[in-house]
Amino acid sequence: MSLNLNARSALAAASLLLAPPALAQAPQAEAPPAEAAPPAQAQPVMTKPPELLQQVEAPYPPEALAEGITASVRLIITIAADGSVADVLPTEPAGHGFDEAAIAAVRQFRFSPAEVDGVPAPVQVEYVYHFTLNAPQPEAPGPEQVQAAPKATLTGQLISRGSRSRVAGATVRCGDDPEAPEALSDADGRFTLEVPPGECAVRVVASGFQLYQTKEQLQANETTEVNFFLAPTAGALETVVRSERPKKEVVRRTITRQEAQKTPGTFGDPIRVIQTLPGVARAPFISGQLLVRGSNPGQTATMMDGVSIPLLFHLLGGPSVVNAEFIDQLDFFPGGYGSQYGRAVGGIVEVGTRKGAADTLHGSVKVDLLDAGFFLEAPVTDGISVAAAARRSYVDTLLPLVLPKDEGSTLSVVPRYWDYQVRVDFGRKRDARSEEEAQSQAGGARSTGYIMAFGSDDQLRLVSSGPETERDLSVDTHTNFHRLKGDWTYRKGALTSVFTPYVGYDGTSFKFGAAKQDGSGYTVGAREVLGLELSSALTVRTGLDLVYEHQSFDVEFPAPENFEYVAFPGAESVGELLVEHIGLGSFDGALFVEADLKVGKFTFTPGVRGNFQRAGDARNVALDPRLWVRFEATERTQLKGSLGLYSQPAETFRFITLPYGNPELAYQRAFQSSLGVEHRLTDVFNVDVTGFFNRRFNNIAAPGEIISLPGGGVVQLPYSNQGIGRALGLEVMVKKQRASATDKWSGWVSYTFSQSLDGRTGPAPENSGNDFGGGFGGSGDTTYGLSPFDQTHILTLVSNYVLGGGWELGGRFRYTTGRPTTPLNHTFDLYQVDRNRFNGTYGPYASARTAGFHQLDVRLDKSWQFQSWTLGLYLDVQNLYNAENVEFVFNDYRQRREYEVPGIPILPVVGVKGSF
Amino acid sequence: MKALLQTGGLLLLAMASLACVGPEDKPSNVHDLRVLGVSTEQPELIASTCERTPEALDELAAEVTYRALLVDPAGEGRPIQYTLWACADPDDRTCENEADRALLAEGTTVAGELTLPIRPGAARGAEDRLLLERVLEEDAYQGLGGIRMPLVLRVVAGGEEVYAQKLMVFWCPVVEGMKANEQPVLPGLRVDDVPWPEGEPLELSGPGPFVVTADDVSDREENYVVPGLRLQAVNLKEAWEIAWYSTLGEFSLSETGGADFGGQQGRHRVEWEPAEGATAQDVTFWAVVRDGRGGSSWLVRRARWSP
Questions:
Q1: What was the pLDDT predicted at A118?
Q2: Residue B283 structural domain
Q3: Closest partner residue to B237 among A287, A574, A896, by Cβ?
Q4: Would you indicate the residue range of the signal peptide (chain B) (predicted)?
C-alpha cells in the first residue's frame, strides 16, 4: 500500500476560529461600538473578522512522512492591523519538524484586516494546521456506481463537556481523508454529515477543544443522531481575540470575570479585586473601601451598566452587592476619564453585566461560609436571552450556634442579606456573525437592547437584654434598593445612539431604642449618548445624563445634642422626643460633548461636561473641561496624558434643612491630571507607567462651622464645602495574560508610589472629634496634612497557575507602607473631669507611621468536569503566614501608651460551586 | 449617611479587634496619683436675669465650694502641691494663656478631699477684664450652653503631674423653666445585694467576682430645661453616670449609666474582681457620680478582702 501524501491546513476550521469571540467563549454582553456607548459596557467586539486571502501549503516533513506520523500543530497567529502575519507561535510543540513547517507556511499567509469595535486592529487567532496521511485512493467507480452508492447520515450536536455550551464552528468528518465530506456545526452546535455507510472514524476539530475521536456504525439510508461532548483544552472557555479596545481614557484597567472570581484573598468579590490595582490604597482589615489616588471613601463612583449602585456592600463592610457570577467584566478608571462620566471626584468603577447565553440553559450554584447563590442564563427565543442571579446569606442561622449564652443576659444578632440581578437581552440575531452583517440583515439600521433589574436587601437586628447586661440594647436596621433600567442601542451607518432610562427605589429603616427613622427614596434618570463618526479622523460624542431623586424621612428621636442644644461635656441626658417628616427632591443633570481627533500619530480628545444641580433651594453649576491626548509612538508603545476638572454633587439627604443638613452645599470639585506610557512588551506582557497629580477642593467636610441664625441663635452646619486634598504619585502595572488555552500562567504586578494630603480649609470646628484612625487629633489647629490612608508604597503581586487535572493555584502578596499616626508625647495627665476622659499630648502631626503591612493570600481551586456539569471547590486562605499587621493604633485611657490593633489573622474560607 | 455607615463599619471592625488587645493600665484600678472627681457646691450658678446688671453679676460672683478627690495610693501620705486657676478657653486644658487666667488657689495638701472656697464668677484676667466675659467671647455657641468657665487644677507629687479641668456653668434664664442644677448624690451601694455601709469595712473573701450595685437613683435624676440652639426650650432628663474605682483589682466596667442617643439607659451594676495572686488587704472603693450637666459627688467605701 502506497502512502498518499496530503498536507493541508484546516481552512474550514480556521475560518471559524476567526469568528467573533462570542462564538468562542462565554456569551458576551451586547457591546455597542465604543464611540457612543459607555465604555465599560463593551467587551471588545470583533465587528469584522479577518479572512484568509492567501494560503500557503506547508511541505510534509520528510522524516515524519517516512515514519507515517501525522500531527496537528496548534498555533497562535498575530494578525497585524493591515492583515499581515506579525507573529506565529506554537501553543504546544508537535515535534518531528511539523512546527517549523507549519510556522513557515503560516508566516506567508495574508488576511484581510480585522476590525474590533469598528476599527482595524491587530488580533490574535488560534489556528490548527493538520498534517494527515491518506490511504491510496481506490479505483474510480463508474458513473452507475456513483448513482447507486447508498448514503448514511450522521447528525447531532456538539456540546462542551462540563458546561453544556454548544460548540459552534467545529468541523466534523469521518477519517483523515481530505476529500471526505465534512460538516460545520452551526450556532447551536448542530451538524449533519452525509457519508458512505459503514464505520465512521469520527474526528471533530474545534477551537479551544481537544481533538474528539470516536467510531460510529452508520447504516445505509438511515440517520444516526448523536451528541458529542468535547473536552475544553484548558479552562472551560477561552477567548481567542486578544486585541485591546481602543482606549478612550488614559488609564482603564479591566478585570475579567475569571479574575474577579479567582483572585486570592478577595473571597471572589469583584469590588475587592479592584483593590489589587495601581492607584488604590489598601483599606483597613478586609474592608472593600476604594481609596483611589488620595480620594476618600465615597468619592469613587461604582456603577452597574451605567447606573449608580447606591449601596456597595452588604452589612456595611461585608460582601459587595455585585454578584461575581453576573458580571462580564469590571472597568476601573482611577482618574482622567472622559466627559461621559461624572458625579465623582475620585475614580470610576463600571461593572459590565453578563448577557444571557444564546445556545442553551446554563447555570451555577455557589455555596460558601456566608451565603449561597445561583446564576442561570438561557435563550428564550431567537434574539432574546435572559440571565438571572440571586444570593442570600445564612449567617443568621449559624450565629446562634456560636454566640455566648448566659443566664443573666440574652444576646441576639441577626444579620441577613440578599441580592438579585436579572437581565433580558433582545435584538441580536444569532446567525449574524458581525455587526455589519447584522446591520445588513436589518436593512441598514439596527436596534438592540436589554432590560435589567438589580437590587439588594440588608437587615441587621441586635438585641441584648437581661439583668446582668450593662443596658438593654436594641438595634434594628433594614436597608434595600431596587433598580430597573433599560438600554436601547440604535445604529445606522456612522451614527450610534445609546439610550439608558432607569428608575429606582431605596428604603431605609433604623430603630435604636426610642430613635426611629424610616426613609424612602425614588429615583428616575436617563442617559443618552450619541456618537457620530464624521470621518476616519474625527468622531464626535455628545449626550445627556439626568437624574432626579426624591427622598423622604419619618424620624422620631430624643433631641440630639449639638443639633438641638449645646451638650455639656460627657452629657448622657435623655432628650425630649422629636417627631419630624422631612422630604426633599433633587435634580442633577449634565450635558457633555467630546470628540476624537486623529492627527497623524496623535489622538486628541477634548471634551466638556456641564453640570447643573437643584436640591431644595440650592442651585449649583459646574463646568468640567477635559483633555486627553494619546501618541502612538510605535505599534506597541503609546504615550498618553490627561487633565481636567471633575465634579461630584453632595447626596440629596445632605441638603435637608438646618440643623440636620446644609441646603447651601456646592459641588465637590477636583482637578485631575496624568501622564504615562503604555508598552506591549510581547503579545501577552503589557506594562503601563502613569504619573498623576490631583487636587480636590470644595469637598464635603463634617462637621461645618458654627454660624449665627438671622432670627437669633446659632447652628453648627453638619456639612460644609471646606474639604480639600492633594495627591501625587506614580503607578506601574505589568500584566501577563494567558496566551492560549495551554498557557498556564497569568498575573500582574501592581505598584504605586504616592503621597496624599487631606483636610479642610480654616480652623478645626467645634465637636470635630476627628481623632480616629490618624485624623487631626492632638495637633491644635492643624487641619491639613497627610491623609489617614496615605501609603507611600503599595505593592501587589497576583499570580495564577493552572496546574492541570482541574487544579489551579493562585497567590496574592501585598506590601504597603504603614499608615500615618501622630505619636504620643506624654509628660503629664490631662484629665477632663466632666467627661471623665483624658486628653493626650502629642508630637508633630502624622510624624510617625505604623509598621509596614505585608500579607500573602493563597487560593486553590479544583474542578471536576462531568458530562454535562462541572463541580468546583476552592480554598481561599487569607494571611497564609499569619503576619501580625497593625491596622490601627489606640492609646490607653490616660493617653500614656500606644497600643496596636492587629489585622485579621490567618483566615481560611472554603466554597463550592457547581455549574452546567 | 453613607459615609457615616461606612465609618461605622470600620468602627465595628476596629471594636471587634480591640477585644484582642488589652492595655495593662485599667481606668478602675487606682495605683498612682489621680484626680478621680471634682465638684462645686453649687454645681452651677444662675442669675435672676439675662440683663447685664450689677445684681446679676453679683449673683454669678457668689462663693462656691470647690472639692477635688485626690488619690495617691503609692504616695504614703506625701505632700501634693496644687494650683487652681480659672481661665477663658476650654481648649486651653492647662490654663496656659496667662492673659486669660486667674489664680484661684494654691498650696500643699495630701491625698483625700481637697476643699477650697472660690469665687470664679468674680475672677478677672489681664487688663482687669471679667473672665466671665472673656469666656463668652470665646464661646462659638454664644452662651447658649451657659457660660462654661474652665477651672483647672494642677497637682504635682514627686514626678507625677496631673491637670484636671472642670467646667463651672453660669446661667441666666434664657428660656422658661430653667432652674439651678442640684448636686447628684448616690443613695447607697450594695455588694452582692447587701447594703454597704459607709463607716465600717466590709469583709470580702474569695476570688469573686463581687457584684456591686448602686441603689436606685431614677427618682433623683432631674428633669430640666435648657435653651435650644434656635432659642427654643429643650426638655431633658438626667441620666447619671457612675465611675467605679478601687485600689485592688478592677471592675468589669469602669463607668455605668448614661443614655445613648436612642435614650437607652445603662444599669449601675458592675462586678469587682481582686487581682490574681493578691494577698489579704484593705481595699478602698470610690463611686463618682456625674449628672451630665456639671453636678458631681462621690461615695467612699472600704472592704477587708482576703483570698
A1: 59
A2: 176-307
A3: A574
A4: 1-19
